[in-house]
Design brief:
By secondary structure, the protein is an alpha+beta fold. It contains eight helices and eight strands, in the order αααβββαββαβββααα. Strands 1, 2, 3, 4, 5, 6, 7 and 8 form an eight-stranded mixed beta sheet that branches.
Length: 242
Amino acid sequence: MASTLWRRGPTDITMGGMRHAIIALTLFATGCSRPAKSPADARTTNHDRAVEELTDATQVLDEMNQMSASRRHRARCVAVIPSLLRTGFIVGGRHGDGVVSCRTASGWSPPAFISISGGSAGLQVGVESSDVVMLVMAERAKAQLFRSDFALGADASASAGPIGEAAQASTDTEMTAEILCYARSRGLFAGAELSGAVIKQDVDALVAIYGDHHEVHAILGGEVAAPQEVSAFLTKLASEFP
């Protein structure tokens, strides 16, 4: 079970999610690289990190309750980024690691591991962490997940997702957006604007969990057997997105 800064609740921030995001943002800003590790040590570290991401993502799915049933039924893929960290002083940045799974003929695929990052300029100070859920609604956007990286808003249109059953399916957002983005801050999910952020495959986590069978197109296509580490996440995903 991932450690937490405090009990997960209305203002929760996972310690693991913040730690990974802060390290990534620091390295991005300074141009530094992580200290070299032996292959065995690196794989163990990446495996533990991937399991922690799965645990946190499962908890996010368990606690979300404000997305309409109709959108859940129609989502082709679901991405969960626990603790997307946004921080900045003059020049800001954001980073988070998470998982994505897609519907197949036999149910939800084993999850692939991804990271999301992007910088922003402006006068800003402070740190904010949010749990992010993205619903992939279109086949073209689903195809982007098979690439090594793609940009939200450029390679696939992304919009803040409408909340609640009262939001009509015929709204402009619903009709045109290929990806609907939601973020939970202070305990509530709301539409989130993530255009400009870049989503990449997390190859280190993929190799740590899937070994030699870590090709994303095969994983998300349901061609790879689901390892034990992902079972709890898939069970919760199937219950929340029937």
